[in-house]
Design a protein that fits this description.
The protein is an all-alpha fold and about 450 residues long. It is built from 19 helices and four strands. The relative contact order is 0.11.
Length: about 450
């Protein structure tokens, strides 16, 4: 495709997605209401309405929504490309991901059968009232979780990544034996140091960085004060793209929560709060088997951590709501993974009776709650914390536990780490390998 066709396809996709959004209906309503204002003239109607939307801030909100869509949607591809190629172009990656999904789902179903615990059930009225009354202090509840085990741990997933091979790749063509040193044995293109320097030019030694150039030996007026003032102006403008560019040189601690929310376009509007409350009502009404996995994971990780144990209640609230959020399913359009399905009791194999389980399509693993934990330092309002976490998950976090060839995926990140260490610190790499502590394993364990 030429650049013009690609741009046209991108615009069409974004317009189509935004047409069904709450923002579209809000802008449409504002445009209709402004027609009654005296400054709107019939002879210049189009220009006057645009001017009104711009001065009233709606144009900026639309820009931020478009910027967000550019980050989450699939890049334009050839119209004849099969749907599975859009999610993941490499067949052996798709096959490995499908095999991994079957293994995880089998583990979950086996747990349900062995423990005689249904995947989902309606809570009795008394249990609903009890859960609603202690929603903000769930950490005080100590259910018996001894029978439940994590469906899988990061170590299990790493073993799958280590076993990945491209059946069409002739390893005899490798230039040197050095290519076989690492654990990741798939031929993906990753950046070298010059390419990384170009991509992350703001990290250059010649560019100011918050946290480095505001040390005591440098007068704060030379960098920090000016940088913080610029950050405040960025927040005043409410421009997502400007906020992301600004943050490449560091986020001032006092502005970080607002800057991250702006970058992610998480506004915490009344409809967002209402959505969170609806999810909360769903948690209170229905008990899912995965709820026990959430409790278990928080107890094994954050509850035992000196930094995060104080956020135990927040973690339960966010993760329980997250498991019920069907809006998360949208990210499977550009994720190499497929949401797991279960069958209504007694109808196994009947595709018409298949339902996504859990409702958000994400089966938690050991350590999943640590995706949320650091965000608890920034947001003390559950609905805002939830919105930011969900957006970070569907943009970034999902790539850390899905098998794909994406440059942002876990396979490429592991390979990138190995290549850099092997190239620039070969003695350390070889030493770790000799003592049986392969670099990716060492990082995972720490």
């Amino acid at each position: 495709m030429d650049d013009g066709t690609e741009l046209s396809l991108t615009i069409a996709q974004i317009v189509q997605r935004l047409k069904g959004s709450h923002l579209h209906s809000q802008i449409e309503r504002q445009a209709k209401e402004c027609l009654h204002q005296p400054e709107i003239k019939l002879e210049s109607l189009k220009e006057d309405v645009r001017s009104f939307l711009k001065t009233s801030g709606w144009e900026r909100k639309l820009q931020n929504a478009v910027y967000r869509e550019l980050h989450v949607q699939l890049p334009p591809s050839h119209p004849a490309a099969p749907p599975e190629h859009l999610k993941e172009p490499l067949a052996y990656m798709r096959k490995a991901q499908a095999s991994w999904e079957k293994r995880v789902l089998k583990s979950l179903n086996s747990m349900s059968t062995e423990l005689e615990v249904p995947l989902a059930r309606m809570r009795p009225a008394a249990e609903q009232r009890e859960l609603a009354s202690k929603w903000n202090e769930m950490g005080t509840d100590e259910p018996d979780l001894s029978r439940f085990r994590p469906v899988y741990a990061p170590k299990d997933f790493l073993e799958v990544l280590i076993s990945l091979r491209n059946p069409n790749h002739d390893r005899s063509e490798d230039i040197s034996a050095r290519s076989h040193w690492g654990l990741i044995q798939v031929p993906l293109n990753v950046r070298d140091i010059p390419q990384l320097r170009q991509a992350y030019s703001e990290l250059s030694l010649t560019t100011g960085q918050l946290g480095i150039d505001d040390h005591a030996h440098i007068h704060p007026d030379l960098f920090e004060n000016d940088y913080v003032q610029i950050g405040k102006k960025v927040l005043e403008e409410q421009d997502s793209a400007a906020a992301q560019q600004y943050s490449r040189q560091g986020c001032p601690t006092g502005l970080r929560a607002d800057l991250w929310a702006l970058i992610l376009n998480c506004t915490n509007q009344p409809q967002d709060v209402m959505h969170y409350e609806q999810l909360m009502a769903g948690v209170i009404q229905h008990d899912l088997l995965v709820d026990n996995l959430i409790y278990k994971d928080v107890k094994l990780t954050a509850s035992n951590d000196d930094y995060y144990f104080v956020f135990e209640d927040f973690l339960y609230q966010v993760l329980l709501c997250f498991s019920r959020d069907t809006a998360v399913l949208d990210h499977f359009k550009y994720n190499s993974a497929t949401p797991p399905k279960s069958y209504i009791q007694g109808k196994t194999g009947d595709e018409e009776s298949a339902v996504v389980y859990p409702p958000n399509g994400v089966i938690l693993f050991h350590g999943f709650s640590m995706y949320v934990a650091p965000l608890c330092f920034l947001y003390n309002e559950p609905s805002k914390l939830y919105s930011v976490f969900r957006e970070m998950y569907i943009r970034y976090f999902f790539r850390l536990h899905a098998i794909s060839s994406s440059p942002s995926g876990i396979v490429s990140l592991c390979l990138q780490f190995e290549r850099l260490l092997q190239t620039h610190l070969p003695q350390l790499f070889y030493h770790l390998r000799q003592i049986g502590a392969q670099p990716p394993q060492s990082i995972g364990e720490t």
